[in-house]
């Protein structure tokens, strides 16, 4: 039986945590090596039972942050995070409440944290990745950044503005669970473009999960041509190659979203024998406008078994 699900402490955009109860039952029962080929916040790989897990993503900062968490003592990481929060005098609303910071829950903490966050960002951008505190500074910055996202400019500087929220006990627990799981699991982190992943190293009972940026929706990682039609076509060809090599795969994607259709994916599917599972993504949020928008989205899991 699946134990309690572990959520990524990165609140990753496009993260599949909420979809796991619908996705995992479609995965093969026996998995030797599980490849989370577009791992992002690692939400999927953390919750799949396998002999070995390979996490891969092209975002080297993200991959190195995960490698850092795999090798640090959890309590030490939490102490380091609170040291940074206190050094930069960032908010901890769960401890002092919104009134203490002259803010409220709907507006969030951006106004209070802005100048403090910018100082942290400036210091982080001036810190070398080899410095002992580099990855903890990076993590705190993500937590206090806009929508917890990761974005660097072409000079390699983190350039997102301050966000509305801060670090709290729930995130602390998520981070501890994440570190614990990464350390207990037999895993490895790679930083490859999916086209460079060596299919020949795979064997029967290995399983590749593919969760690329969606061609027809927006996220920081597919801004400015981050994910193109050519990428989409190359990925679909890569999946056909896996199929020819008799390696099982599952692909997450959306076929339609807010009136847009992914034509490339749609026509590819029409000429294949793959199985399409239509997922039913409901938010617990009762806002009817959100429900309306979601109902226009056809989120699918495509499998070749
Ligand atoms: C939808 S997110 C994955 C979310 C993840 N499944 C989760 O639950 O947290 C897509 C990821 O693909 C990565 N990516 C983009 N282009 C890539 C490429 N060519 N090869 C491998 N990874 C890529 C992005 O950096 C991003 O982290």
Which features characterize this protein?
Adenine-specific Methyltransferase, domain 2; 10 helices; 13% strand; globular
Relative helix content: 25-40%
Main pleated-sheet profile: 8 strands, mixed
CATH architecture of the largest domain: 3-Layer(aba) Sandwich
Indicate the CATH class of the largest domain: Alpha Beta
Distance between the termini: 22 Å
Which sequence of SSEs, written as H and E, runs from N to C?
Answer: HEEHHHHHHEEHEEHEHE
Number of DSSP helices?
10
Describe this structure in words.
The chain is of the alpha/beta class. The protein has two domains: 17-58 and 192-303, 3-Layer(aba) Sandwich (Rossmann fold), CATH 3.40.50; 73-173, Adenine-specific Methyltransferase, domain 2, CATH 1.10.1020.10. It has ten helices and eight strands. It has helices at residues 20-23, 60-70, 74-87, 93-100, 110-125, 134-144, 169-184, 229-244, 263-270, 288-295, and strands at 33-36, 52-56, 187-190, 207-210, 248-257, 260-261, 275-279, 298-303. Strands 1, 2, 3, 4, 5, 6, 7 and 8 form an eight-stranded mixed beta sheet that branches. A hairpin with a 2-residue loop joins strand 5 and strand 6. Helix 3 crosses helix 6 and helix 5 (110-125) runs antiparallel to helix 6. It is globular and about 60 Å long. 31% of the residues are buried. The model is unreliable at 283-288 (pLDDT under 50). The protein binds S-adenosylmethionine (SAM). The site of S-adenosylmethionine has 21 residues, from loops.
List the helices and strands and how they pair.
Blueprint: H1 20-23, E1 33-36, E2 52-56, H2 60-70, H3 74-87, H4 93-100, H5 110-125, H6 134-144, H7 169-184, E3 187-190, E4 207-210, H8 229-244, E5 248-257, E6 260-261, H9 263-270, E7 275-279, H10 288-295, E8 298-303
Parallel strand pairs: 1-2, 1-4, 2-3, 4-5
Antiparallel strand pairs: 5-6, 5-8, 7-8
Helix pairs in contact: 3-6, 5-6
S-adenosylmethionine (SAM) is lined by residues 8, 12, 14-16, 38-41, 43-44, 57-59, 193-194, 211-213, 221, 227.
């Amino acid at each position: 039986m699946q134990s309690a699900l572990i959520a990524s402490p990165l609140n990753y955009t496009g993260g599949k945590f909420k979809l796991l109860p619908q996705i995992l039952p479609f995965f093969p029962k026996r998995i030797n090596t599980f490849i989370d080929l577009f791992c992002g916040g690692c939400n999927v790989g953390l919750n799949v039972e396998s002999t070995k897990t390979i996490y891969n993503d092209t975002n080297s900062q993200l991959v190195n942050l995960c490698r850092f968490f795999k090798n640090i003592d959890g309590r030490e990481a939490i102490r380091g995070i609170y040291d940074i929060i206190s050094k930069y005098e960032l908010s901890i609303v769960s401890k002092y409440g919104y009134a203490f910071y002259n803010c409220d829950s709907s507006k969030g903490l951006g106004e209070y944290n802005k100048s403090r966050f910018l100082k942290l960002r400036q210091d982080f951008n001036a810190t070398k990745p080899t410095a002992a505190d580099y990855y903890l500074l990076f993590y705190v910055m993500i937590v206090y950044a806009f929508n917890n996202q990761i974005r660097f400019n072409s000079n390699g500087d983190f350039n997102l503005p301050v966000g509305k929220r801060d670090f709290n006990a729930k995130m602390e627990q998520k981070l501890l669970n994440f570190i614990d799981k990464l350390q207990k699991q037999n895993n490895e982190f790679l930083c490859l473009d999916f086209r460079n992943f060596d299919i020949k190293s795979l064997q029967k009972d290995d399983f590749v999960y593919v969760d690329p940026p969606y061609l027809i929706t927006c996220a920081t990682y597919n801004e400015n041509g981050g994910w193109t039609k050519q990428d989409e076509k190359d990925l679909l060809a890569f999946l056909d190659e896996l199929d020819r090599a008799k390696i099982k795969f599952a692909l997450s994607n959306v076929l339609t979203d807010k009136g847009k259709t992914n034509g490339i994916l749609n026509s590819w599917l029409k000429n294949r024998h793959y199985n399409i599972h239509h997922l039913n993504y409901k938010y617990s949020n009762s806002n009817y406008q959100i429900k309306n928008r979601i109902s226009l989205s056809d989120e699918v899991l495509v499998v070749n078994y």
